[in-house]
Amino acid sequence: MNKDLYSILGVDEKIPQDDLKKAYRKLAKKYHPDANPGDKKAEERFKEVSEAYDILGSKEKREQYDQLRSGGGGFSWSDADGQTGSPFGGGGLADILRSMFGGGGGFSTGGGFGQKRASRPTVVVSVPFATAALGGTTQVNLELPSMCHICMGAGGSGEKTCSQCGGSGRVQQGQMVMPCPTCGGAGKTYTDVCSRCHGTGTVTASETVNLDIPAGSDDGSVLRLATPSRKTVLVKLRIIPDSFFRRDGRNIHCSVNISAPQAVLGTKLKIRTLDGKIVLKIHPGTQPGTVLRIPGKGVPYRGAKGDQLVHVGVLLPSSVSEEDKVLWEKLSGKEA
Hints:
The chain is of the alpha+beta class. The chain has 3 domains: 5-101, DnaJ domain (Helix Hairpins); 122-155 and 194-240, Urease metallochaperone UreE, N-terminal domain (HSP40/DNAj peptide-binding domain, Sandwich); 246-315, HSP40/DNAj peptide-binding domain (Sandwich), CATH 2.60.260. It has 8 helices and 17 strands. Helix 2 packs antiparallel against helix 3. The termini are far apart.
């Protein structure tokens, strides 16, 4: 595929930077997912246009790209490893460009004061104990950064070189070099800052998605979630503690208390498991601290399930009546 970044944006290589931005905004507006719901081709085109402008929209990156491009004639995207395909589909010269110019894929506005790709959003989602153990689906409401539709991600108009850093994006503070506080590291400011995004190029948008929880998920597990807007979000699971269960690997532990007569004579108890209640038989003569095992009622792991371990405690009365005292004395053999 002999299509380069200028061709992707439909512009000539000599186009001024301001006109390049206008061309990008026009295409971004045309192919934005919000304007083409469910249109996968439009989404791919939008991604292609955005990533092309991420390089050409920066004067420094454009100069580097032009130098690389001038040495390659037709400039094929398969030059690097012999593979063909979309210039942003992974592999080939596109990956080399990404490594040269920064970024790890995904949407970039190509503008705003930061002039950097945002880090992948991470959200914390609380999951019930049983859902984490057995797996399931939970609905998640996300607040994610999205391109500002007012300025099309530019952050403002009337671009000019930052007066504090002189366009470098960095300032010297003592022995340290820091991002410029005036332009946020972009090296430029705007005469008219966008009133919607306040110069960041992004706004917060709400998305509701269904999150599939794998069986056996632990507290702190991180999942990758693809949202309807094609953003990839890292989801950190926070497992809600259960009042009855506690987990140890793929086994589930719980505790029950029985009375002294039940321990001596035996009994049957209804006990909760992860997938419903069962009847548990307490044998006569059960001692305090006995651990009873219920096979297959633990956490699924590699096609098998762990067990549920029931810790049995014996409750003794804290005070006894005169009548009860006589009975206990008979049992102890101390009857007068």
